[in-house]
Design a protein that fits this description.
Dihydrodipicolinate Reductase, domain 2; oxidoreductase; Inositol 2-dehydrogenase; 2 domains; Rossmann fold; globular; 6-stranded parallel beta sheet; alpha/beta; binds NADP nicotinamide-adenine-dinucleotide phosphate; about 25% strand; 7-stranded mixed beta sheet
């Protein structure tokens, strides 16, 4: 069976996911496209999915009888309405992060899915599919003993002037927030944020870098440096200190050179290159599960917890240095 997929939002990531579904992965085909920017949908049809029908609205695409599953890759503020419509139609739905822009919105999705009684939603937290993180998790689960501390960094070469301090949480740290819950199989109980002096390349409305400290229910302390104007490259670091040893996220593969009297490895500069393979694996996982009428991977619950944690981290930015409690509601049985 070929899964017939509709894509809502054909901007940067929607176009790239359409490309991988039609040209890289197996078992699925793009049959429908929708974007408020019609020219963008038409360009994806022309370049990638010539047989796709273009719909005026995301809701019309979801309702189409030949659409089996939906990809929501539009602007974040529109995700909730489309995911809720997909659940109401009983169609599996892959939603790019964020699941919703508020915790209340993400909760509405959790409630609708629970009411439906079966998983339909996968959230686009692709780091869980990165081969480096998968190997790190295996080491954490089986080799280094119970985790005690995580040291991590999320560094980006530069961000535009519109990128303001809370975006370091909602747009950047959000991936660490999800992946560390998964890596440690633990939940957060508090967040704290410390600001060193801002780097010279930072902007007027951005305090950069910052250090976010998360504490988990089992007492593991995670410190993450978020430095989005670090200049030198796109660099994701993670080291887990356990009872018996230490495990480190592998560096991305890079040619080592002996050149000009130096031993050198290039560092990536673009997040798309760092996680390109994991996007393929996450969408193939979606296709397999959606073909069976369900969803796999990161859940609506994970999207909801990420939203609650992000909100707590933004409050912690405002209360610099103070611990902000993270109180999670009871997890519905659907997500156990
Ligand atoms: P983008 O290039 O701006 O594309 C978003 C597209 O959605 C644009 O064409 C936009 O049209 C369209 N759109 C806006 N409102 C819409 C609506 N109501 N219905 C249908 N389409 C609508 O953004 P992007 O970089 O692709 O990001 C899209 C989403 O993916 C964001 O939530 C982002 O956080 C997420 N993302 C995740 C990752 C990851 O690593 N997992 C990476 C990149 C992006 P206009 O241009 O006319 O507004």
């Amino acid at each position: 069976m070929t899964l017939r997929i509709g894509v809502i939002g054909t901007g940067a990531i929607g176009r790239d996911h359409a490309r991988r579904i039609n040209h890289v992965l197996g078992g699925a085909k793009i049959v429908a496209l929708s974007d408020v920017n019609k020219a963008s949908a038409e360009a994806v049809k022309k370049d990638i999915a010539p047989d796709a029908v273009i719909y005026d609205t995301g809701e019309a695409l979801i309702a189409a009888s030949d659409v089996d599953a939906v990809l929501v890759t539009s602007w974040g503020a529109t995700h909730e309405q489309y995911v809720l419509a997909a659940i109401a139609a009983g169609k599996p739905c892959f939603c790019e992060k964020p699941l919703a822009t508020t915790a209340e919105g993400a909760r509405r999705i959790v409630d609708a899915e629970v009411e439906h009684g079966k998983r339909l939603v996968q959230v686009g937290f692709m780091r869980r599919y990165d081969s480096g993180y998968v190997a790190l998790k295996q080491a954490v689960d089986t080799r280094i003993g119970a985790p005690i501390i995580v040291h991590a960094a999320h560094r980006n070469p530069a961000v535009p002037e519109q990128y303001v301090t809370p975006m370091a949480i909602h747009d950047t740290l959000i991936h660490e927030i999800d992946v560390f819950r998964w890596l440690l199989d633990d939940d957060y109980i508090s967040a704290r944020v410390l600001f060193p002096r801002s780097a010279a390349r930072s902007h007027a409305k951005l305090k950069d870098p910052q250090i976010v400290i998360l504490e988990t229910a089992r007492g593991t302390i995670i410190n993450v440096e978020v430095f989005v104007n670090c200049h030198y490259g796109y660099d994701i670091q993670c080291e887990v200190v356990g009872e018996d040893g230490i495990a480190r996220l592998p560096e991305p593969m890079a040619i080592q050179m002996r050149l000009g009297a130096k031993l050198q490895n290039d560092i990536l500069t673009d997040w798309k290159d760092r996680f390109i393979a994991s996007y393929d694996v996450e969408l193939q996982d979606f296709i397999h599960a959606a073909a069976k009428g369900t969803a796999s991977g990161p859940t609506s619950w994970d999207g909801y917890v990420a939203a609650i944690t992000s909100d707590a981290c933004v409050t912690a930015q405002e209360k610099e240095g103070q611990a902000v409690a993270i109180n999670l509601p009871t997890r519905p049985a659907l997500y156990n």
